[in-house]
Specification:
The protein is 38% helix and 13% strand. The protein is α/β, with parallel strands linked by helices. The radius of gyration is 22 Å and the shape is globular. The structure holds pyridoxal-5'-phosphate.
């Protein structure tokens, strides 16, 4: 049953109980797993036999959910991490080391921007940021002989810029490196980046996949399409012996699963950002209803974006579902069924009007979170970008009156009634 549709995969992929086994995915809340002989366990440490021995390296609950997410994205293998930040760090660090370089789209999540611009720099990995809307020539100019990867987000959080995936995939492949795409906002329900040339996909499962704001988590999925062996020893961590693992050559021993196996047996072993089985169980419940929720999130976002766009107190709405939006055409190409449930807008009254609007909301929660079942709202100038003055805000592309609104799955009339009364007070 591998050719089922995504709605079906969300329920059935990754775990198929046999006769008499539980229908719900069991929580294997155990750090360790028992063996009968010394040699049996020794074979596991050599990666010569398959089996569970310690939850930092593998756990049946975690593995089932990873397999489900791999199926949703159309990849060959996946690994779950304890946060989206850990996922993006591992995805890059799995193929980059001190002396290497990454090309990244500029409109990315703030945490990932800091990871690339500050923390990875301290580890000796440099990054050049390119405008997400840059021409192929401008993107090509950012590459260096030591470039090992390209990074971007399908729908940028919070800029809501839609990525031209094929443009970035071509730039990466022309320079013999993989494209890593953070697909958190679109989710595999609306966009599957592997179908457009991406090689590795990452997620903050904290957002729509969990969907209820319950737990922080991440995922990395490999398409299995990038040929690590084809470019000499450019990706030598995958193509030459790993002395910390008895001289294993990942591409030789694991083929298409090389990248994920290395992330597990090396990065997870040494850095340890594993999610708990209990959190993976909760993530799995979120995944079961993902397509239903995404449909409603996108429907509500469309109606609300149209409502705000027509409102006299609103100066601008950013949402790729509006035909007037700069990213409408790219969204139609890459995610024709919808983008995501997050929109942003500006009030004509600027900063003060935005604060009055926010403080008048009754249904929408003021939260530093997005992409969950309840409607949430944030005023970047008062919250995430609070330390900046108006000139610095302008440089960061955040106007003082900008409001980020993450539409939940409430009835849209109730959301609009709340926005309407708050706009009256703005
Ligand atoms: C939230 C988010 C992250 C970081 O994920 P955490 O789970 O909070 O660590 C990374 N990328 C995107 C696009 C996000 O929205």
């Amino acid at each position: 049953m591998s050719n089922t549709r995504i709605e079906t995969k969300c329920l059935h992929a990754g775990y198929s109980p046999s006769k008499g086994e539980p229908c719900a995915l069991p929580i294997y809340q155990s750090t360790t797993f028992k063996y009968d002989t010394t040699d049996e366990m020794g074979q596991l440490f050599d990666l010569k036999a398959d089996g569970y021995f310690y939850t930092r390296l593998a756990n049946p609950t975690n593995d089932a959910v990873a397999a489900k997410i791999a199926a949703l994205e159309g990849g060959v293998a996946a690994i779950l991490t304890s946060s989206g930040q850990a996922a993006n760090f591992y995805a890059i660090f799995n193929i980059c080391e001190a002396g290497d370089h990454v090309v990244s789209a500029s409109t990315i999540y703030g945490g990932t921007f800091n990871l690339l611009a500050v923390t990875l720099k301290k580890l000796g990995i440099d990054c050049t940021f390119v405008d997400t809307d840059a021409s192929p020539e401008e993107i090509a100019a950012a590459f260096k002989p030591n470039t090992k990867a390209v990074f971007a987000e399908t729908i940028a959080n919070p800029a809501l810029v839609v990525l031209d995936i094929e443009k970035f995939a071509k730039a990466a492949h022309d320079h013999e490196v993989p494209l890593i795409v953070d697909n958190t906002f679109a989710t595999p329900v609306n966009c599957r980046p592997f179908e457009w040339g991406a090689d590795i996909v990452t997620h903050s499962t904290t957002k729509y996949m969990d969907g209820h704001g319950l737990q922080v988590g991440g995922a990395i999925i490999d398409s299995g399409n990038f040929d690590w062996d084809a470019y000499g020893n450019k990706f030598h961590g995958l193509t030459t012996p790993d002395e910390s693992y008895h001289g294993i050559i990942y591409t030789k021993q694991f083929g298409k699963a090389a990248y994920i196996t290395k992330a597990t047996s090396q990065l997870m072993r040494d850095l340890g950002a594993i999610p708990s089985p209990n959190n993976c169980f909760l993530l799995n419940i979120g995944l079961e209803t993902l397509p239903l929720r995404i449909e409603r999130h996108c429907y509500n976002a469309q109606i609300v974006a149209e409502y705000l766009n027509a409102h006299e107190k609103v100066s601008k709405v950013n949402f790729a579902g509006l035909p007037t939006d700069k990213y409408y055409d790219l969204a139609q190409k890459y995610m024709p069924n919808g983008t995501c449930g997050v929109i942003s807008f500006e009030l004509k009254g600027g900063r003060d009007a935005s604060v009055r609007f926010m403080d008048s909301l009754e249904l929408a929660n003021i939260c530093t979170h997005v992409a969950a079942s309840k409607t949430m709202v944030l005023h970047p100038a008062s919250h995430t970008h609070r330390q900046m003055n108006d000139a610095q805000l302008a440089e960061a592309g955040v106007s003082p009156g900008l409001i980020r609104l993450s539409l939940g799955i409430e009835h849209v009339d109730d959301i609009i009634a709340d926005l309407d009364q708050a706009l009256k007070n703005a």
